[in-house]
Amino acid sequence: MDLMWLIAKCALIGIIWAALLVPVIFNNMGAIKYLVTVALLTGLCFFFKGYSAIINTMTLMALVALVIAFITSMAVFDRDSKNKSKIIAFSCIMAGVSYLVTVLFFTSVHIL
Fold it and tell me: How many CB atoms lie within 10 A of CB 39?
């Protein structure tokens, strides 16, 4: 039961990050690209299950950045801007990655 719960959580995180990564990595979105990305990210999340607190917080930071970027983009971009979704997704990815780098940097500093 615990294994199924862990796989479900990893799949949810994989779905969230795939939705953010696919517009940035690929020019056009396809179902196969999305499913492969979800499967890869789910596998990575399961492999790094020891870092679940960092992964969960990183995902939460990306989702908060998504809300802020979407609200900000409504004021800045035109409604028919082609690059709007890529810019929003990229800012969310950078928010999550910056949290990851900050955590890894400060934990390595405390170790030294």
Answer: 13
Dihedral over Cα of 27, 33, 38, 39: its sign: negative
> Is the distance from CB of 45 to CB of 14 less than 8 angstroms?
yes
* DSSP annotation of 77: S
Domain boundaries, the chain: 2-111
For 56-111, what is each residue's pLDDT tens digit? 889 998 889 888 888 888 887 776 677 777 888 888 888 888 888 888 887 766 65
Please give the structure tokens belonging to residue 38.
């979800």
């890869």: which residue's tokens? 40
Q: Contact 69/96 with Cβ under 8 angstroms?
A: no
Cα distance between residue 41 and residue 14, in whole Å: 5
Query: Which pTM does this prediction carry?
Result: 0.80
Count of residues making up the chain: 112
